[in-house]
Design brief:
Elements lengths: L25 E3 L6 E2 L1 H10 L6 E3 L5 E4 L2 E5 L3 E8 L2 E14 L4 E8 L15 E5 L2 E7 L9 E7 L4 E7 L3 E15 L2 E6 L3 E4 L5 E17 L3 H7 L2 E2 L15 H9 L3 E3 L1
Antiparallel strand pairs: 1-2, 1-3, 4-5, 5-6, 6-7, 7-8, 9-10, 9-17, 10-11, 11-16, 12-16, 12-18, 13-14, 13-15, 13-16
Length: 267
């Protein structure tokens, strides 16, 4: 790791985070283009399922970006999230040295957070968002679950369609609570009604079309982080109802660029 000249060592405890400022850091993730800037780095790290490849900053530095922070140690990087004024660990990424017989490579191991707090979300609780033509309510986030899971409650109008897409960073479960929908998962077509559950593994394209009565279902994402993409591409719901019908087609090209940053590819 290489430092930025003229910047002193960062804080080493959550209590000191407020005194820090962003530095000229770069995040390199596998073969993707480098991510630069505090906010972009925090978002990318939270969305990543494999951890980060190389984080260029001073050892033992903290990079603060709004309510997220990266705490860099000699052994790895800790992703933290601020909730109700308190900093909690969301993801712990520890560097592990492995050998493939010819050379040694560094990989990242995601370790469940220690010291998580109990969380209870009522039926009318959660961050409600108008997400294109649906109502999306974030019931569990990466920050709640140590990065292990996110649960999103989705209410869709009749005939709504999710375009064919693929997740490269998370597996996705679908649990139909009300209504019906037809799912295409790889080469499989599944007709689902209330009470049904189905599973869409990462790296397999999938889509769905909602039935005539609409539907309400849970997205169960493992690991968490997809909620950051939903927040970025939605707006706070004015009420816990479906949003007004879209007046124009979404900007699919712009959406594809945003989705790529979260390991999602639109077909």
């Amino acid at each position: 790791m290489a430092g930025t000249p003229g910047i002193t060592s960062g804080a080493r405890t959550p209590e000191e985070l407020e005194t820090l400022f962003e530095s000229g850091a770069t995040l390199v993730m596998s073969s993707d283009e480098p991510v630069r800037g505090g906010e972009a780095i925090a978002r990318a790290a939270l969305a990543s399922r494999n951890g980060i490849g190389a984080y260029v900053a001073d050892p033992r530095r903290v990079l603060l970006a709004r309510n997220s922070a990266l705490v860099v140690t000699d052994r790895g990087v800790n992703v933290m999230h601020r909730d109700d004024g308190a900093w909690r660990y969301a993801i712990v990424l520890h560097a592990v040295e492995e050998s493939n017989g010819r050379e040694k490579i560094m990989v990242q191991e995601t370790i469940p957070s220690q010291g998580l707090q109990p969380v209870a979300v009522g039926k009318d609780g959660g961050d409600a968002r108008w997400w294109f033509g649906s109502l999306a309510v974030i019931k569990a986030s990466a920050a709640d679950t140590g990065g292990q899971m996110a649960i999103i409650e989705i209410t869709e109008p009749p005939g709504a369609e999710a375009p064919m897409h693929v997740h490269h960073r998370e597996d996705e479960g679908f649990w139909l609570l009300e209504g019906s929908a037809t799912f295409e998962v790889g080469d499989t077509t599944i007709e689902a009604v209330a009470g049904d559950y189905l599973f869409g593994p990462r790296d397999i394209p999938h889509s769905y079309t909602v039935g005539d009565a609409g539907c309400r279902m849970l997205f169960i994402m493992i690991p968490g982080g997809i909620e950051e993409f939903i927040i970025e591409t939605s707006e706070p719901a004015a009420s816990r109802t479906l949003p007004p019908p879209l007046e124009e087609e979404p900007d699919w090209e712009g959406l594809a660029v945003r989705a790529h940053a979260y390991g999602i590819a639109l077909a």
